[in-house]
Amino acid sequence: MFLEINFKKLVNSFKFAVSGIKIIFQEEQTFRIEILIAILVIIAMFYFNLLPFEKAIIFIMIFLVLAAELTNSLLERVLDVIHPSFNLQIKKIKDISSAIVLFSCFAALIVGILIFLPYLHNARYILDSIRP
User: How far is C-alpha 61 from the geometric centre of its chain's CA atoms?
Assistant: First the structure.
């Protein structure tokens, strides 16, 4: 049946996914850095009490960056298995894959600046008005 769910398979799928996240967290420094930045952004998001749609956009950007990093790491590992020794074409593919992550980070940074800048400006104005 269409809606029949095999919960054992579903639980196993989640276990595999969590295992993959653990592996990437343990083995990829950039992923750990991106998680740290994401945590700091989430704290700032709630500190400045962003509007719901702004929070949604921030979460989308965070997951975009993390998904790009996961995809990049996956591709690099597959290519290392396929061709363990140095190959110029594989290096180019890996570089392009890394550029996707960098591009998504720049996009997230721009979106973050556009969303947080008015809040930071207001916070500065408030601080300036209470200083003697």
Answer: 7
pLDDT tens-digit map of 102-117: 999 999 999 999 999 9
Rounded CA-CA distance 56/95 in Å is 30
123 with 48: CB under 8 angstroms? yes
The CATH class of the 7-130 domain is mainly alpha
Map out the domains of the chain as residue ranges.
7-130
Residue with tokens 């061709």: 83
Give residue 28's region: left, alpha or beta (phi > 0; psi -120 to 50).
beta
At residue 42's C-alpha, the angle toward residues 44 and 48, to 5°, is: 30
pTM: 0.88
